[in-house]
Design goal:
Blueprint lengths: L2 H7 L5 H9 L3 E3 L2 E2 L12 E3 L2 E2 L7 E6 L28 E3 L7 E7 L2 H8 L7 E8 L8 H5 L2 E2 L2 E2 L4 E7 L3 E8 L6 H8 L4 E9 L2 E2 L8 E3 L2 H9 L1
Parallel strand pairs: 7-13
Antiparallel strand pairs: 1-2, 1-3, 3-4, 5-7, 5-15, 6-7, 8-12, 8-13, 9-10, 11-12, 13-14
Length: about 230
Amino acid sequence: MRINKYLASSGIASRRECDRLIQEGKVKINGKTAVLGIEVNDGDEVSVDGKLIALKKNEYYLLNKPKGYICSVSDEKGRKTVLDLMPATAGRIYPVGRLDYDSEGLIILTTDGELAQHLTHPSNNVPKTYLVKVEGKLTETDLNPIRSGIEIDGYVTKKCKAHIVETNKEYTKAHITLFEGKNREIRKMFSAIGKEVMLLKRIKIGELSLRGLNRGEYRKLSKQEVDYLMSI
């Protein structure tokens, strides 16, 4: 296994960040400074800044986050975090990406820095689909500014997919698929067309869904699911 993959699989950082650590001379194999591309073999001792790094099996969880939790490992305001919903045996997992305090739905938690980097880096255009419920009636035409890109906070959002799944006088539900997500972006997009979001729920990353999970429930991801997430 190449040294950068070894470090990323051990939860040190993304492969790109691990390459930087190697280039800075902070990584050693059997006491010798490592170079980019070198292989790590069984029995080798790897260290970063003098600390031994053991290859460990990464953990992957899918959580159906309820409202009222923040996507962080801790909170200075004392609010509940998604880690409060996870088992104590889960290890040093952390949430991939963000769902704000008032939003709910699919969040992945893992020890794998490489997967986290892949899913969150804007250049990878990983599709994330949300169920959005807004006040009042909307038409497909009303969604056109959101589909084509709309100016919020001084920038124009990327093109996205959007279609209505239910509408009446009281509310409208729509599915929105983003390929880049910024802080509270969906709420701001609908505010820009004069609609307040009543419910925001992430329902898919790619084709990975919440199927079978109630609010607050979690499950481990299979190897096939992890491989799929790395491929999209």
